[in-house]
Amino acid sequence: MTDLTAATTPTLADIATLYKMQEELAALKSAEAMLRRRIADHYFPTPTEGSKENKYPLNDGTGAILQMDHKVNRSVLEPELDALKEAIKAEGSNLPKLPFNKLVRYKPELVKAEYNKLTVEEKQVFDRALDVKPGMPEVKVVIPKRGA
Known about the structure:
The chain is mainly alpha-helical. The chain has 2 domains: 9-54 and 66-72; 74-130, no CATH class. Helix content is 41%, strand content 4%. The chain has a two-stranded antiparallel sheet. The longest helix is centred in the first third of the chain and has 32 residues, at 12-43. The protein is flat. The model has no long low-confidence stretch (mean pLDDT 92).
């Protein structure tokens, strides 16, 4: 295989290789996800959250086990959270008091559209509060549609 980290000027062959790799990777990711789901559904029909209890011995003579980390995604619905807080505060509420400050974390997040409106001077000041580092570039080959 070609040394993909070499500090030479990328060629059209490199771009073609990138395109082919991206296509192969997308197909492989899709096939892997479908197979993973099929295996998980078969061997762990009623999983528990986490991985501690989701184990299946493979009985292959090596002692290997199939282990699944069952994830449950939870996200806070802000309007519902606000309504719940109000309902708990309401006079005569029989709902239990909840430690919202421990249950919900508020993470500052940059609003890029507003940041873009700042002047150069304002950005220089605000940048003191930011960790700015380059991300991984996204590069793809776009093939024009025939007849377009």
